[in-house]
Amino acid sequence: MKSYRTNSSDGVGIHVLDTLDEADLSITPLLICPGLSETAEEFEALMEFLLPRRCVALSFRGRGHSDTPLTGYGLEEHVADIEKVVQAAGLIQYHMYSHSRGVSYALGYARAENPHIRSLLLDDYPPEHRAMSEAWAEEYLHEYIIPHERLPHIRQEAVIGIHRDSEYAALEIMLPQPVLVMHGMLDDSMITEEDLNRYKLMCADLTVRPFAHSGHGIRMTEEQGLYETIRDFLNQCDK
């Protein structure tokens, strides 16, 4: 798997994993946008499962092997990270898979009516970019990141920057391409019935896939089913 870096528009180095050397380039590639504290490396199993389809995964600023600036953690800066990875990877036509808060980054990127996005696969997150509550950064760091030893995945400076720079944005944009919305059915899922109705109004071609034994972390609880759902949807879109 190739590992390389590219610079976002504000000079921040963004780390990328890419299965280019093992892929069949006649198949439309998949761009992977991780969740809030996730890194490209956490999607290696999915990338290998989807071979020979090429997969490109990035670690957003402040995560994994990407640079950690002190400022620039709003929606537009994360969208700029995606734009530069698309350019660096030479992607022309591609699918996009995103998990959790990565969904808001992917939708922020897609709202420019990008004709190169063949489909969107959205994993358990509503169509919005959320501002963080006053207490969020301290709680997130001390109740999740530090106890679960995830500081190598997301630095404290990035958590503070996301808390400071995030502003609410509704992302209920019209999506002409096929869209797959996946959601858990347990209490900690981040998609409600109201959110599903919002997606139905947004999407001309919508598929909804519930996971009965999962909450927000479908990849942890129903990994095989999730991977097969992603593979089958991509194959169907490519017909």
Task: Give a short overview.
By secondary structure, the protein is of the alpha/beta class. It has helices at 44-49, 75-89, 102-110, 136-145, 156-165, 193-202, 218-221, 223-237; strands at residues 2-7, 13-18, 30-33, 55-59, 94-99, 117-123, 128-129, 169-170, 175-184, 203-211. The longest helix has 15 residues, at 75-89.
Please describe what this structure looks like.
The structure is a single chain. The protein is an alpha/beta fold. It has a single domain, classed as 3-Layer(aba) Sandwich (Rossmann fold), CATH 3.40.50.1820. Helices cover 33% and strands 24% of the residues. The protein has eight helices and ten strands. Strands 1-2-4-3-5-6-9-10 form an eight-stranded mixed beta sheet, with helices on both faces. A two-stranded antiparallel sheet has the order 7-8. Helix 2 packs across helix 3 and helix 4 (136-145) runs antiparallel to helix 5. The longest helix has 15 residues, at 75-89. It is globular. The model has no long low-confidence stretch (mean pLDDT 97).
